[in-house]
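Anyone up for a design puzzle?
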């Protein structure tokens, strides 16, 4: 078919998934037959065993019920429905998974990429009021595009190359963070061991410590306009340096009952449902208000904010160990202020901050590039599965 002088892939044909692949429903063996010591064959239960593309073995099974073979596509059948991985070993699969084994003249990778790109279609077919799941019958009736086998291979190859570029860019970003961690440890040493014998002082001497507050919810006017951002612990990312944009804002009247910090303050999660969330920290790059689950440090002239952020990032376990015991881990303002941390000379802190700024600038470029690659991948996927890529484009893949 020619459109505007460009030869395109033949009009896309479609097939039910059950016609082009065998679908093996998982079945969990008795709990007494699986272990974490490596006895038997690998046992995958559900999405919890997934990696980025391939599953990771956590459990083994001595009396497997349903077997998946290497190169099968694994699909999550319940809570959540739709995510996929590619199996690499002979294994037992539990009822949270099904294995999709494509038939002759069907590209496994083509089907994998389509399923990955269209998880929402599969999830939309889930049933159940409280525990969402999809049946093997419904999965087998899902209609997928089915071009000629050679076109399947070309499309899969093109998307695989795009996916590899995305993975490489993510790895570059990860290595930049590893570089900054190495630079910190080289300059300042292990914080808890204090091998370089820096002066250790309580956090209350790093700057002003402020605990957030929640203006009354009974007065809607407190939250009625976008006067100032109201930050919660959800706005403190796990690894990024700065807080994210708030969902809620306070009005001018609400601000009278709130606490605020200026740019350069460190916000620290000090009340959380799990110990892993306590001590998570991020800097502000603007004036914000924040709730009572957060303690903030507005650093004085002897503390460089970027040094402070990395000090907390590397010392998170040390911070967590200072939290009160109980169902909800808490670091009160008093407890928080008494935590002792190393305090190297400001000149050395500033040198480290300059390294961070240069590295973060490069990281921003990489992140922009990653976003462009992900957008391109999404666009290519849509065009490929609609049959809108030219034969020449596919042949060059």
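Challenge accepted. My sequence:
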């Amino acid at each position: 078919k020619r459109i505007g002088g460009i030869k395109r892939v033949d009009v896309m044909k479609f097939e039910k998934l059950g016609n082009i692949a065998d679908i093996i429903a998982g079945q969990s063996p008795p709990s007494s037959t699986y272990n974490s010591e490596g006895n038997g064959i690998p046992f995958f239960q559900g999405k919890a065993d997934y990696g980025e593309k391939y599953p990771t073995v956590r459990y083994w099974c001595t009396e497997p019920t349903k077997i998946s073979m290497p190169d099968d596509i694994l699909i999550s059948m319940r809570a959540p429905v739709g995510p996929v991985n590619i199996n690499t070993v002979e294994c037992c699969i539990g009822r949270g998974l099904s294995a999709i084994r494509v038939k002759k003249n069907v590209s496994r990778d083509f089907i994998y990429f389509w399923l990955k790109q269209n998880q929402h279609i599969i999830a939309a077919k889930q049933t159940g009021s409280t525990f969402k799941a999809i049946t093997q019958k419904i999965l087998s009736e899902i209609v997928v595009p089915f071009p000629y086998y050679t076109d399947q291979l070309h499309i899969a190859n093109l998307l695989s190359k795009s996916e590899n570029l995305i993975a490489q860019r993510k790895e570059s970003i990860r290595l930049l963070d590893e570089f900054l961690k190495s630079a910190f440890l080289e300059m300042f040493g292990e914080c808890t061991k204090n091998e370089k014998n820096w002066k250790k002082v309580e956090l209350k001497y790093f700057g002003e410590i402020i605990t957030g507050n929640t203006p009354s919810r009974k007065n809607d006017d407190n939250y009625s306009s976008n006067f100032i951002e109201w930050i919660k612990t959800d706005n403190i990312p796990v690894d990024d340096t700065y807080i994210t944009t708030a969902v809620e804002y306070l009005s001018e009247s609400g601000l009278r009952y709130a606490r605020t910090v200026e740019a350069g303050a460190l916000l620290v999660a000090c009340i959380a449902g799990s110990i892993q969330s306590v001590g998570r920290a991020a800097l502000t790059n603007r004036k914000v208000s924040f709730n009572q689950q957060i303690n903030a440090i507005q650093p004085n002239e002897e503390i460089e904010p970027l040094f402070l952020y990395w000090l907390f990032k590397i010392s998170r376990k040390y911070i967590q160990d200072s939290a009160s015991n109980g169902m909800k881990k808490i670091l009160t303002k008093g407890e928080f202020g008494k935590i002792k941390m190393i305090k190297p000379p400001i000149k050395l802190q500033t040198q480290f901050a300059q390294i961070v700024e240069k590295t973060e600038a490069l990281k921003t470029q990489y992140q922009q590039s990653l976003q462009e690659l992900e957008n391109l991948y999404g666009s290519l996927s849509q065009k490929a599965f609609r049959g809108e890529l030219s034969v020449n484009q596919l042949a060059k893949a």
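A detail worth pointing out: Confidence is low (pLDDT under 50) at residues 1-9.
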